[in-house]
Amino acid sequence: EPEVTQTPSHQVTQMGQEVILRCVPISNHLYFYWYRQILGQKVEFLVSFYNNEISEKSEIFDDQFSVERPDGSNFTLKIRSTKLEDSAMYFCASRQVRGTLQETQYFGPGTRLLVL
Amino acid sequence: AQTVTQSQPEMSVQEAETVTLSCTYDTSENNYYLFWYKQPPSRQMILVIRQEAYKQQNATENRFSVNFQKAAKSFSLKISDSQLGDTAMYFCALTPLLAGNMLTFGGGTRLMVKP
Fold it and tell me: Among all residues of chain A, which has the CA nearest to that of B47?
């Protein structure tokens, strides 16, 4: 069964450093998402991406964040200058598009980011 | 904007028993999808079940079923014949029936299945 994959599974970085989180969505999916979950808190939407551009973004997704689909398979989240409060689990998700119907979002296993 | 509320932070159930997790939501949309996701200790998010709001029939997936009350904006998850592997965080989530919209999650319910 096809699945969303994410790398790395864990990342430790120093405050102020740039990190890139990578995701490979399910191959026939066209909508891509990033969510984050700070330890002990609810899952929060960051951004959605469709047709090579951002579809929606939350207020969390400020100028230090960016997303990119550099090739036909990868979908990346870049944090330019990490802060302590960026420490969280970051989930990538993808879904199909059929007309305007919403389809289920399938999640990757997550990347646990720790900013020191 | 939409909100999702899970009023039970923690629950426990004996193995083989039945447990119901509550979820209420608020949305101005008339058409939307509701989901229950499971997050085991590995923290991966796994889809358990989904419900289209325009369908009156409650969704069922093996031991998992929902009680969807649209007028009350309630969407509870029933787990029958609970198994040890059901121990996890369970998140209720909602998304409008429009392409591209994000999931709004509840705060989660931690379920412990006891042997």
Answer: A106
